[in-house]
What we know:
Elements: H1 3-10, E1 15-16, E2 18-24, E3 27-33, E4 36-40, E5 45-51, H2 56-63, E6 65-70, H3 76-81, E7 95-97, E8 100-102, E9 108-120, E10 123-135, E11 141-144, E12 147-150, H4 151-155
Antiparallel strand pairs: 1-11, 2-3, 2-6, 4-5, 5-10, 6-9, 7-8, 9-10, 11-12
The structure holds flavin-adenine dinucleotide (FAD) and nicotinamide-adenine-dinucleotide.
Protein name: Flavin reductase (DIM6/NTAB) family NADH-FMN oxidoreductase RutF
InterPro entries: Flavin_Rdtase-like_dom, NADH-dep_flavin_reductase, Split_barrel_FMN-bd
GO biological process, one term: pyrimidine nucleobase catabolic process
Amino acid sequence: xxxxxxxxxxxxxxxxxxxxxxxxxxxxxxxxxxxxxxxxxxxxxxxxxxxxxxxxxxxxxxxxxxxxxxxxxxxxxxxxxxxxxxxxxxxxxxxxxxxxxxxxxxxxxxxxxxxxxxxxxxxxxxxxxxxxxxxxxxxxxxxxxxxxxxxxxxxxxx
Length: 158
Ligand code: FAD
Ligand code: NAD
């Protein structure tokens, strides 16, 4: 099976979009990720999957902390920025909670300590123990068939 067939099939699974944030020595790194899921209620665990080439790996491994920021439909530009899809560099303001850099205006900020990590093929799976959560009202940014969508465009047939 070729890679495109696999990606096309995975793209049929509609998801939200997150930006994973973490910081080392005061330097913040962000990375767009849709490989995110809730794992366990008791204890409260979530999972992210980070590609082996991502610089985010060394930051998470050294700090043992990360935050999952669930993006609103007003934050597509941040998704593109943290996926390396914008040509220009941008300054992003983060809020800080207990040493975690978080994205303001995200629908949810899920603060985690690394519980366990597993290498799975060309990605590393990080199970995060959730230590704190902040939420805001709004509609989500969506990703389906390799394209950004939002709830309004879907209900208008787009
Ligand atoms: P880099 O490529 O070094 O950084 C990404 C970009 O963020 C760069 O342009 C960098 O300048 C910018 N940036 C980083 N920190 C800051 C900062 N503090 N201020 C301003 N700009 C900053 N990959 C996965 O491994 N797992 C996934 O689940 C996943 N899901 C994705 C979902 C979508 C919808 C998209 C579009 C991409 C996804 N990717 C995923 C791909 C991933 O986002 C990119 O490969 C990413 O560029 C790799 O991150 P990196 O750590 O190597 O960071
Ligand atoms: P796409 O068609 O590549 O993505 C469709 C789906 O395929 C994604 O939602 C994801 O489930 C899966 N996928 C894509 N690349 C993958 C990878 N390297 N490993 C595991 N699963 C992967 O969409 P696109 O707009 O071409 O994506 C933009 C870029 O972001 C591409 O370079 C893509 O590889 C990367 N991306 C990576 C992941 C990931 O690593 N989990 C997820 C989404 C997008």
